[in-house]
Amino acid sequence: MGLRLDELFAKVGSFYPLRENFRLTPEVKEKFTEKVKEDPESLGSRKVTQVVRTDGLKLILEDGSWVCYRLSGTEPVVRVCSEARKRAIVNHSAKPRKTECLNKFHGR
Q1: Which of 47, 56, 88, 108 gives the lowest tally of CB atoms within 10 Å of its CB?
Q2: What is the pTM of this model?
Q3: How many domains does the chain have?
Q4: Is the dihedral of CA 38, 46, 21, 53 positive or negative?
Q5: 48 lies in a domain?
Q6: DSSP states of 13-79 as a string?
Q7: Residue at 12 is within a domain
Q8: What is the pLDDT of residues 4-38, one digit of tens each?
Q9: Domain encompassing residue 23
Q10: Around Cβ 55, how many Cβ atoms within 10 Å?
């Protein structure tokens, strides 16, 4: 017999996902496409411990949370998915994700 949901959460903990879409101009999309070829060492103040390129650019952070940047094939947007063990960490990461997508690639 399987575990009850509360038993499962007690065993493995919770995960909090977040998905955001950021609209890109053609110029920013071009810069973004070039920039994601690099392996960043940090995201905001958090250290990147692993880079995975299976489906976009996925950054595994030192606390086990992650952020994945993926260009849409049908819209001029970058989809940013992230997940962490605590809701506050996912919400706290929103500013660096937006900065990476918009400001950095606008050349600011």
Answers
A1: 108
A2: 0.77
A3: 1
A4: positive
A5: yes
A6: ---EEEEEEEE--HHHHHHHHHHTTS--SEETTEEEEEEE-TTSEEEEETTS-EEEEEE-SSSSEEE
A7: no
A8: 888 887 888 888 899 989 898 888 888 888 888 88
A9: 17-106
A10: 9
